[in-house]
Every structure is written in structure tokens, then in C-alpha cells.
RNA sequence: CCGGAGGUGGCAGAGUGGUUAAAUGCUCCAGACUGUAAAUCUGGCGGGGUAACCCUACGAAGGUUCGAUCCCUUCCCUCCGGA
């Protein structure tokens, strides 16, 4: 039976470092599950480079065609598209499924490394509406409407959908637009991607956590490291290649904050660092909220083995667990 | 020592004699999320209580007033300029 190892957790829990170690031991290849690492040129800000500690110990690094390689371990789903283009869950599932299939053909163990909860869920379990394509023309016109108008429109064309939405989503223009889009399509679904778990894979899921304070500290340090690694230059390079500030803000976190800095909305580097640290704390919290249901038996990431990265020998215990599971 | 500005909740920063536990932003906490997900959206945020409600608060101490964070006096502290 095909086996699949999944490692997930919030930002700064050391997913990639752990996955690289496991890949060396178990003859694996990594598949990143990250909505921003898919873009070419977003390297430092998205943390594609492994931690500096790892880099010093393992200097063998190269970039291949559509993959990066550390110490002989390939990492996929980096650099799959242009940063100016919008990439979505749908694209991700399609691309990642193909990559994973190829890894199997090579007789290797795919290790999915993810911080983007929705992508991970879609890849593993599928998403029933995923196949309904987006209608850019419709979206353009809907985007000119106010939230109020969007709500009325949806209530009119699909009262059932409106009923299903919760209060928070009803205030969310982005959700309203997609709901209208789904309601007004005449697209007949072929079902779309079904999710790997339904393909009969034997999966082991490992979730990484850390106490809040320690997580924040790791985030704060990482922001400073990234500044030292030239995150600012990276942003300027993106500007020079024609990326708009608007697009940078869409990309979020480092790129959004960096856009504010380049535009002078943030006055100095210290403020830049502070703002960024705060934003990433918030991001980590959102990830934790998403993954939290995981700890419940019927939760989103059921059958997950959770590890607190501050516990002694946690990496060794993970290794033992994988060794027992992997045939 | 003299002249000027100012001291507000974790921070930044409004404000005004009563409707101010005090705008707004940030941090922080909680949550939603089936095609932008590092995005987007919702709620909370002095303390206590399920609640009605109670307590402590706008540098300190007094005073004026029915009532002061807002007016007056003194003191303490900070910043700018001049000796």
C-alpha cells in the first residue's frame, strides 16, 4: 500500500528541518504545502531556505528544475508559478497530486510539509466545490458591489446557501462572492479532485506545537534573521521586476509589511520588525485555530500524533514512530 | 534658574464639565473559513460577577462645582529652547 507522511503545524515550529531529517533516514522527498512558497522569487520571506543552523551543517544545496535540493533531499512545490499570478487551492491540489505520484514511481516516500491548512485538507480529503471554476468576469463585477448588496444578491439567488453561512462568513465579501459564483454557475461537476486519503493511502500525520511564548520567541528571532538574510533586498527586487504594492499586500505578511515600508508608511526598520512580528504572531494563532480541531477525535486532522517541539528528544521519538509505521 | 510644551488604559494616540470604563490603531485573547487561505471575516480586551450591578481609573495632593479626566492651586516627572 502507498504510504504518505504528513507533517504540519504553525509557522516556526521547525517542520521543514524535521522533514529533511526524516527524508534522509527514510529515503523521502518533501512536498511543501504552503500557499506562498509556490511562487518563484519569494524565498527569504517565505522561509524556503532552511534555518541557518541547518544550512551551516549541510552545505550541499542546489536548485533544480522545479525543485530545491538539500543534502540530496528534494523539496517540491517550491517555485511552481509566477508571483504575479494568482495561485489557488485548486492549482495546488492538481500540481501536488502529480508530484506525489511521481515520487511514488521513484519508489520514495512523499513527505508533505504543510502550514496551509486549507491546502492540506484539500489535498488529503478533497473539497466538494473545488472543481467549480472561478469566473473572473463575474467576480470583477461583484467586486464593485457593497457588502450589503452582495448579501442581498446571494439571498435572492440562493437562499439555501445564505442559510448555511454563519454570521462571520456573511460579513465576508470574499465568501459572499464565491457563494454567488457557485450559485450562478451552470458548470456540471466532474467531481474534481477526490483527496488522497480516499485513494487508500496509508497515512501518518504528525502535528507540531510549541508553547505560545516560545513560539512567539522563535517567530521574533526568525524575523530578525530574515532581515539579516536580505529580506528587504528581496522585496526591492520584486518591485524592480514589476510587482505592484497591491500585489505585495495580497501576498501578506512580510511582503505586505515590506510594501508599507517601501512606500514610507512604516518609517524605520525597528518599526518594520515590530509590526511584522506582531502580524506573524496573529498568523500563527490563526493556524493554531485551524489545526486545533485536530486534537479532537473527530477533528479535522484526526489520527494525528502531536509533538511539542520543546520536549526533549522529540525528534528521536518522531523517528521511532515513523520507523514503526514505514514498511 | 527662566521661557515654552506635556503627563490618558500593555503601547501609540484622541478627547471633553455630566450620555466616558474613556474614540482610533497596534499588541493580546477567542473564533469562523469547501477555489485569493501568509488571504478574508467575526467577537472580546481595567478588575469582579451568570446577571442586575459593584470596585478601581485619565501623574500626586488639595480646591471650585450638584457633578471633573476635562477648570483653579501647589507638588512631582518628561521634553524643547534660553541662561
TrEMBL record:
The keyword Transcription regulation does not apply. Its cofactor is Mg(2+). One of its GO terms (biological process) is tRNA modification. Its EC number is 2.5.1.75. It comes from the Bacteria. ATP binds at residues 9-16. One of its GO terms (molecular function) is tRNA dimethylallyltransferase activity. The record marks 116, 139 as: Interaction with substrate tRNA. Residues 34-37 are annotated as: Interaction with substrate tRNA. Substrate binds at residues 11-16. The keyword Signal does not apply. It catalyses: adenosine(37) in tRNA + dimethylallyl diphosphate = N(6)-dimethylallyladenosine(37) in tRNA + diphosphate. Pfam families: IPPT. InterPro entries: Dimethylallyltransferase, IPT, P-loop_NTPase. It is an enzyme of class 2 (transferase). Keywords: ATP-binding, Magnesium, Nucleotide-binding, Transferase, tRNA processing. Belongs to the IPP transferase family. HAMAP family: IPP_trans. Monomer. PANTHER family: TRNA DIMETHYLALLYLTRANSFERASE. Catalyzes the transfer of a dimethylallyl group onto the adenine at position 37 in tRNAs that read codons beginning with uridine, leading to the formation of N6-(dimethylallyl)adenosine (i(6)A). This is tRNA dimethylallyltransferase. It comes from Candidatus Daviesbacteria bacterium RIFCSPHIGHO2_01_FULL_41_23.
